[in-house]
Write a structure and sequence with these properties.
Elements lengths: L3 H22 L4 H6 L5 H9 L2 H6 L4 E5 L2 H8 L4 H10 L1 E2 L5 H4 L6 E5 L14 E6 L5 E5 L8 E10 L3 E6 L6 H4 L11 H7 L3 H10 L1 H9 L3 E6 L17 H9 L2 E2 L5 H6 L4 E2 L10 E7 L2 E5 L4 E11 L2 E6 L6 H4 L72 H17 L1
Parallel strand pairs: 1-7, 8-14
Antiparallel strand pairs: 1-2, 3-4, 4-5, 5-6, 6-7, 8-9, 10-11, 11-12, 12-13, 13-14
């Protein structure tokens, strides 16, 4: 029969197991891992410069194929940052691979999904890596495209947190000509209004043109720019204040509030902890917003209302364009608006995949929708996010983003500890 004392010991043991499990699933930091290895300093630096470190840190199951400074210089010395980012994405596998698993591949060969596959720029097998156990202690890596050589060889294991993150060294970059030779347009090469119109944000594009703010965006784009564009439906919402009553200066501030003078991809948004300053910031107001992450969803909070990041239009260093479900209302302009009343959450359909090509130019944007709706409490909208990667095979199905899996074990841990104290 189970005594009270044995039950208490069992609960304490279970709590300890959960605590260890929670620690294992906690977020890792690829930059911190590589800082202890100066031979990978260049690789680590470019993970930070391209913001891929943030994306890696949001993944719960990931393998990073690192290169020494000498090996990686063959990429960095010849290519612009946007191409270097694509190459790095091919070296981030969305599965867990350590030395033991590499030498125990079913049928001796497999395909593994990479971060490049999730960008929408990788047709066919372009975003997959072929991993082949070549016996005799050798494991080869190469593009999954037919006829590609397995020119990269596994060298050694660097760091493993089992089934969470693995860092292993290969001796030479995985070379894919279609990636290395892909055109690398500058941000100024994009037609911003054309991209916005194509993404269903014609009203926003029209307001940018009529206010002259589009010139501000174009000027900032080459140094780093992220735009959060409300879709056309957002301007028809009953909850939207009458924007036609804004002065010209306030209209400019509102539009500039929808952009950040920095390249901020989705992975960086997911890991942001501090308020994010916008182009509207000035001495009279902060004009910033905060982010909240829930699984694969990111919600922007302005202090007046909230809006989810709905889809990715462009993600090409140093330019990002996202669509959002609602017009972002800064507290500096709408701080006296009535508090939002709770309402039913709208149904969310899967977010569209990112656009892979620069949009075609458009001569002029459509006229804005009527903006004369009286103020009303906005309806809350749960978060959403860009589409994620496909699965290569059964060995690659463990790829997922960090969805805060630590919370449930932590709550169970507290409950078990409380029960053990009560029973004692």
């Amino acid at each position: 029969m189970c005594t009270m004392g044995s039950l208490r010991h069992f609960l304490l043991f279970t709590a300890a197991v959960i605590a260890v499990s929670s620690a294992v699933t906690a977020a890792h930091n690829i930059t911190a891992i590589l800082e202890g290895h100066p031979e990978y300093s260049q690789f680590n630096d470019y993970l930070s410069r391209t913001k891929l470190a943030d994306e890696i840190n949001t993944r719960t199951t990931v393998t990073v194929l690192v290169l020494t400074n000498g090996a990686f210089s063959s990429v960095t010395s010849k290519h612009p940052l946007s191409v270097i980012k694509n190459v790095l994405e091919l070296h981030v596998l969305l599965d867990y691979w350590d030395g033991d698993k590499l030498h125990d591949i079913s049928k001796g060969t497999t395909l593994s999904t990479t971060l490049y596959q999730t960008t929408g720029n990788a047709p066919g097998n372009l975003g997959f890596v072929n991993i082949t156990d070549q016996k005799g202690g050798k494991v080869g890596f190469g593009s999954a495209l037919p006829g590609s050589p397995l020119a990269s060889q596994y060298t050694k294991s660097v760091k493993q947190i089992p089934f969470n993150i693995s860092v292993i060294e290969i001796n030479t970059p995985i070379v894919v000509p279609a990636v290395l030779n892909a055109p690398a347009p500058a941000a100024s090469d994009y037609n911003l209004t054309g991209a916005l119109e194509k993404a269903g944000c014609k009203t926003f594009a029209s307001l940018l043109i009529s206010s002259g703010v589009i010139k501000t965006f174009e000027k900032a784009a080459d140094k780093g720019l992220t735009i959060f564009a409300p879709n056309d439906e957002a301007f028809k919402a009953d909850s939207l204040p009458d924007l036609s009553k804004l002065s010209n200066a306030d209209t400019v501030a509102l539009l500039e509030y929808h952009a950040v003078a920095e390249y901020t991809p989705f992975g960086t948004l997911k890991t942001s902890k501090d308020p994010i300053s916008t182009l509207a910031a000035n001495g009279a107001g902060k004009f910033d917003f905060s982010t909240e992450t829930s699984g694969d969803s990111v919600t922007l909070h302005t202090g007046v209302d909230s809006s989810r990041v709905a889809s990715t239009v462009i993600d090409s260093t140093p330019l990002c364009i996202f669509t959002v479900d609602k017009v972002l209302l800064p507290a500096e302009l709408f701080g006296n608006a009535p508090s939002p009343a709770p309402g039913p959450a709208p149904e969310i359909s899967p977010a569209p995949a990112p656009e892979s090509d620069a949009p075609s130019p458009s001569a002029e944007a459509s006229a804005p929708s009527p903006l004369l709706s009286p103020p009303a409490p906005p309806t809350s909208s749960p978060g959403g996010a860009p589409a994620d990667s496909p699965t290569a095979d059964s060995e690659n199905t463990t790829a997922s983003k960090n969805s805060g899996a630590v919370n449930a074990p932590a709550l169970l841990l507290l409950a078990l500890l409380a029960l053990s104290v009560y029973l004692s």
